[in-house]
Amino acid sequence: MGTLKTLLRAGIIGSMLAIIPLSSAHALQCSNTGKNFNNWKKEFALEYKGKFKKSTLAKFSKVNYNTKVMKSDRNNKAKFKGSFDSFYKRRSKGVAPIAKKKWKKYKRFFNKAEKQFGVPAEIILTIWGLETGFSGFLGKTNILESTATLAYDCRRSESLFFNELLAALTIIDKGMINLDKRNGAIHGEIGGTQFLPSRFLSSATDYDGGGVDVFRSPGDVIGSTAKWFADNGWKRGGDYQRGSANFRVIMKWNRADNYQFTIPKLAKVIRTKYAPK
Ligand SMILES: [Ca+2]
What we know:
The chain is an all-alpha fold.
């Protein structure tokens, strides 16, 4: 998750603004408790009447305020705290050997992604492994519920998550995913590499036919993740260690230093010791 500034720079919020104007967002009253959530949903549905389908707004009107989401969001920084060494050890544990197997098994998709987007397999493998253990844990929180709860919360509503809620509703509106019936991580992250809804809209790609499915299709996870890096300025064949141009793209992926530093270090280990022969 980036700061507002980072996201603006990354064009994530900009791309949402192009889809739905945010002028009416300020009329909605945020809150730090769940008390006014039902009224807020009613006001929201009035504001966006005609901008989303009736069926989409009907799904939105059924979501509940999720206290677990808010509790976790308030403690979010703690997940990335501590020294880099301890963070790296904890998060990278066991990733590389599985990355080796996945690289071999899905070589055709990694090759395609590298050819098309210039993003090397080890970067995608690292992100996929760190985010969900290669789609092993996709999260247990209803995605529309978490984005709506975060959009309603005062700390979040004016910026990032209001846009994410609009993106989530756009995904439902276009019939891409029924996010009111799908689970993700606590901030409404979607699929194998935990795209926020706006990232899904900008970068989700069908890489193996049959439509986009970043929950179940490894090919789509690989292609979509590579596309996100390319969309954000990845330079083909360039170095990605700290200080490089590609590292600045890595910094847009997640704003926590420990996470940012883990990506090139683990990717290098995967490339040098675990690449298929
Ligand atoms: Ca597909």
